[in-house]
Amino acid sequence: MRAAREAAQSGDRTSIAIADAALRTVQQVGSDYEALSDSDFQKMVEDPDSFAGRKVVLYGQVLKRDGEVTRLATGPSLNLRTSQYMKTTVLTADDSSLLAAHESLDHVIVLGEVQGAISYDNPVLVGETATSPEVRVGTIKLLAYN
């Protein structure tokens, strides 16, 4: 997995531990979920409806929880410093306890199915709406506290 290789090259023990946890999560769930390349991730953000039904692996930082909906700053890899990482994805789950266990700023790995685009009240521009990919969570795992 690319994230594990990057962490090992950096020599940062925390990064290695996080990458190992992410790799174990993906291995436990199985190969039904695809890791997205940077370009595929960008396409998903720009046209979520074209990715509906695809099972993907995303990495992210919890931004805010509103009831059973969680907004996440996401990206296709563990590299938290890239601008690709700061794309908002809305997470939903059939089992609300999957999302309830995670607080704002937690770093997580998400394995879920893209539902398409979802619109919601923009948290930055009052009175405006925002549109993001909606991902129904199959598995979510804490990688690190902020």
How would the global form be characterised? globular
Number of strands: 6
SS class: alpha/beta
Specify the biggest β-sheet. Answer: 5 strands, mixed, barrel
Count the DSSP helices: 4
Order of strands across the biggest sheet? 2-3-4-6-5
Helix content: 25-40%
Can you tell me the residue ranges where pLDDT is under 50 for at least 5 consecutive residues? 1-5
Whole-number average pLDDT? Answer: 78
Radius of gyration (Å) = 14 Å
- How many angstroms separate the termini? 23 Å
Determine the strand fraction and express it as a percent band: 35-45%
The SSE order reads: HHEHEEEHEE
Topology summary:
Blueprint: H1 2-10, H2 13-29, E1 34-35, H3 38-46, E2 55-66, E3 69-75, E4 87-92, H4 97-100, E5 107-121, E6 129-144
Parallel strand pairs: 1-2, 4-6
Antiparallel strand pairs: 2-3, 2-5, 3-4, 5-6
Helix pairs in contact: 1-2
What does this structure look like?
The chain has 146 residues and is an alpha/beta fold. The chain has 4 helices and 6 strands; from the N terminus they run H-H-E-H-E-E-E-H-E-E. The chain has a 5-stranded mixed β-barrel with strand order 2-3-4-6-5. Strand 1 (34-35), helix 3 and strand 2 form a beta-alpha-beta unit. Helix 1 (2-10) packs antiparallel against helix 2 (13-29). The radius of gyration is 14 Å and the shape is globular. Mean pLDDT is 78; it is low at 1-5.
